[in-house]
């Protein structure tokens, strides 16, 4: 989810190439030019204790985000993710997970791809720093350990202090969106989420006439005055309740992103700065030399292609299109927040617990709900945000929609 780039424009239909005096973070033209019926025209009203800021409409606030041009920053980001995934109950080894965060027997614990799944649940604290498009750093703070991903010029380093392992790769110099080695602003390193702006971009992409967008007052975030942009689906059947984005009143940069589910309860994804400075970080922040005795693994590229990997945080992309990427033959059924991606695996569905047997069979049965309809029968696997129906004949329906919407979609063929 790299920021879009442009010269002086604030909108574009896709990634825009070229750099003027400064790269711009641009949202899709369909968002900036969204119809008045979609955008709420009520200006921000400060509640008691909140910062007293000038009135602003939702349209103006979206344009402020699009015009934001923060090149340098440092700070601390808190990530809380609660998808409601069931515990594995000691079955991790059944799925081939290794030790020390390795993705395989020959992998490196310092490879960025080995760290992504750790951010899919629970609370994490990140330190981020950026100095233009060529220098970023993201560090995940752990108990008595730290993982850092550093991009400095042509070098990309990953370091896992727990295993004392280093991953090194070379970034290309093109910085084209979607290319190997792309490194965006605000510590966007491709494999790991960096700031709320990455998530805000995807939320704004989902805005259309099925969406209500309003300004929901003001708030203090990380010592900064901010407006709250509220994005709410108008359609029923989606698992998304609302998305709230706190936008820095001065710079226009998103400082906090919160996604709450339609079912209520705690946020599914809550990412926000607890500290932030827009001063130029010290150059030494991005220096890295492998520690003595560290195992160094050389990678072929700076990072896997984003088109096939996506971001590390679940809930960062909305709509069925996020689930259809990279899947041959995937189709999108439905519109807006009720869109569902469907594809045929060409094989059998998920085996039942009785077919598998043992602890693994019981675990599989506990994951899903058996459903049936005109399509036949299958199993719905649910989280608090993303649900998937896998039919017994191998068809898959997935989206940020509830179980009934998946079954209706499957029944409609």
Description:
This protein is an alpha+beta fold and 413 residues long. It has helices spanning 29-32, 58-67, 196-205, 306-309, 321-324, 353-356, 358-367, 403-411; strands spanning 11-12, 27-28, 72-81, 122-131, 135-142, 145-152, 155-160, 165-170, 211-221, 224-233, 240-248, 254-261, 269-277, 295-298, 331-333, 340-344, 368-373, 376-382, 387-391, 395-399. The protein is globular and about 65 Å long.
Features:
413 residues; alpha+beta; outer membrane lipoprotein receptor (LolB), chain A; TATA-Binding Protein; twelve-stranded mixed beta sheet; six-stranded antiparallel beta sheet; 8 helices; 20 strands
* Cross-sheet strand order for the largest sheet: 9-10-11-12-13-3-4-5-6-7-8-14
> Briefly, what CATH class of the largest domain?
Mainly Beta
Q: Kindly report the CATH topology of the largest domain.
A: outer membrane lipoprotein receptor (LolB), chain A
Largest β sheet strand count, sense and barrel closure: 12 strands, mixed
Q: Taking all residues together, what is the mean pLDDT? A: 75
Q: Whole-Å distance between the termini?
A: 32 Å
* Oligomer class: single chain
The CATH superfamily of the largest domain is known as Lipoprotein localisation LolA/LolB/LppX
Question: β content, as a range?
Answer: 25-35%
The beta-strand count equals 20
The domain count comes to: 2
- State the shape: globular
Summarize the structure.
13% of the residues lie in helices and 32% in strands.
Please write out the topology:
Layout: E1 11-12, E2 27-28, H1 29-32, H2 58-67, E3 72-81, E4 122-131, E5 135-142, E6 145-152, E7 155-160, E8 165-170, H3 196-205, E9 211-221, E10 224-233, E11 240-248, E12 254-261, E13 269-277, E14 295-298, H4 306-309, H5 321-324, E15 331-333, E16 340-344, H6 353-356, H7 358-367, E17 368-373, E18 376-382, E19 387-391, E20 395-399, H8 403-411
Parallel strand pairs: 1-2, 8-14
Antiparallel strand pairs: 3-4, 3-13, 4-5, 5-6, 6-7, 7-8, 9-10, 10-11, 11-12, 12-13, 15-16, 16-20, 17-18, 18-19, 19-20
